[in-house]
Design a protein that fits this description.
This protein is of the alpha/beta class and 351 residues long. It has a domain of 214 residues: Rossmann fold, CATH 3.40.50.720. The chain is 39% helix and 17% strand. The strands form four sheets. The protein has a seven-stranded parallel sheet with strand order 3-2-1-4-5-6-11, with helices on both faces. Strands 7-10 form a two-stranded parallel sheet. It has a two-stranded parallel ribbon with strand order 8-13. Helix 10 crosses helix 12. The radius of gyration is 19 Å and the shape is globular. The protein binds uridine-5'-diphosphate-4-deoxy-4-fluoro-alpha-D-galactose. Uridine-5'-diphosphate-4-deoxy-4-fluoro-alpha-D-galactose binds next to helix 8 and strand 8. The site of uridine-5'-diphosphate-4-deoxy-4-fluoro-alpha-D-galactose has 20 residues, from helix 8 and strand 8.
Length: 351
């Protein structure tokens, strides 16, 4: 494809496009003038997101969005989507993502995450579409030897099946390029995505008890849960609690648009960290969220959670140098937007 191919002439298939990161990315793509085809089976997403996307981007851009309710493992459905649309590239978010659940249901996790990816790339190949951005994770770095993590930091053993699926899919896509150098693969390793769209119309909507820190904190703030459980205060960190590189979901979404622009007219496999480069502790998050919601949030100390690393944060220089992307929002912005979303939608998209 020509380097100058404008967004208007490109059609991006977004798998899992109604999920947390997917939906924010769809908004940025539509704002950037792309045609977008979303495929989502709604396993972990809500169809109401479509109306929210329309409201945010406006009528004109919304016309460039189509939605298929389908499973990426369903080859027939995927084939007919590719037959009906001239897909120029794919952003692949769809997949199971709960770390703890993956330990209990490894067969389901391996089957779903690997089968969907293999089906997707095979159908892409059949249709001559060889450009893919994959939603990977900092989890592939395992327990780091040195911080900050650069793209050259070694991949380590994952600590759970979910992490292994990210690890393996990175390898599958790399092997695909080895077999056929026409493939154009970008692996985006996300650190910890939080926050919500500043409009308050879209955000994270976990089913049941949230596994991740910020959705849990948000539910305590809105009165749905009593107190935050802090998993470990004896880590070798400034305040003893775990340190992570939290990144605003809108920054992350923009990182995908930057990658799409950058990879246009290229082939190869490239890896980028998407984080802020700044580590924050669990207590930093609680302090910042308390300021955002205007009340001191209660927390209790608990033992460490199995599989958690002490600290990780990214070196994001490569993304800046290659793609001109860097995060714009800080932790206070992220907590403000999470609170704005949670307080206006206490029951997520259903309320
Ligand atoms: N934590 C708590 N209480 C909670 C939940 C989490 O104290 O109720 C702590 C954790 O121990 C950790 C930090 O908050 O120190 C962040 O935990 P999250 O569960 O929010 O995020 P993780 O870093 O464990 O995992 C995230 C993504 C994974 C991804 C991983 C990559 O959820 O999908 O980052 O590093 F694989």
């Amino acid at each position: 494809m020509d380097a100058a191919t404008p967004a208007q002439q490109q059609c991006v298939l977004v798998t899992g496009g109604l999920g947390f990161i997917g939906s924010h990315t769809v908004v940025e793509l539509l704002k950037g003038g792309y045609n977008v085809v979303v495929v989502d089976n709604l396993f972990n997403a809500n169809e109401k997101v479509l109306d929210r996307i329309d409201t945010i981007v406006g009528e004109d851009a919304a016309k460039n969005l189509s939605f298929y309710r389908a499973d990426v493992c369903d080859r027939e459905a995927l084939t007919s989507i590719f037959d009906d649309n001239t897909i120029t590239s794919v952003i692949h978010f769809a997949g199971y993502k709960a770390v703890g659940e993956s330990v209990v249901k490894p067969i389901e996790y391996y089957t779903n995450n690997l089968t969907s990816t293999l089906t997707l790339v095979d159908v892409m190949r059949e249709h001559g579409c060889k450009s893919i951005i994959f939603s990977s994770s900092a989890t592939v770095y395992g327990n780091p030897d040195a911080l900050p993590l650069t793209e050259a930091s070694p991949k380590k053993n994952a600590t759970n099946p979910y992490g292994w699926t990210k690890w393996m899919i990175e390898q599958i896509l790399t092997d695909l390029h080895t077999s056929d150098s026409a493939w154009n693969v970008v692996l985006l390793r996300y650190f910890n995505p939080i926050g919500a769209h500043p409009s308050g119309l879209m955000g994270e909507d976990p089913k049941g008890i949230p596994n991740n820190l910020v959705p849990y904190v948000a539910q305590v703030a809105v009165g749905k849960r009593d107190a935050i459980h802090v998993y470990g205060d004896d880590y070798d960190t400034p305040d003893g609690t775990g340190v992570r590189d939290y990144i605003h979901v809108c920054d992350l979404a923009c990182g995908h648009v930057a990658a799409l622009t950058w990879m246009n007219d290229r082939t190869g496999v490239e890896v980028f960290n998407l984080g802020t480069g700044k580590g924050s502790s669990v207590l930093d998050v609680i302090t910042s969220f308390s300021a955002a919601c205007g009340k001191k949030l209660p927390y209790v100390m608990e033992p460490r959670r199995s599989g958690d690393v002490t600290a990780n944060y990214a070196n994001c220089i490569k993304a800046k140098e290659y793609m001109g992307w860097e995060a714009q929002y800080d932790l206070d912005d992220m907590c403000r937007d999470s609170w704005n979303w949670q307080s206006h939608n206490p029951n997520g998209y259903e309320g």
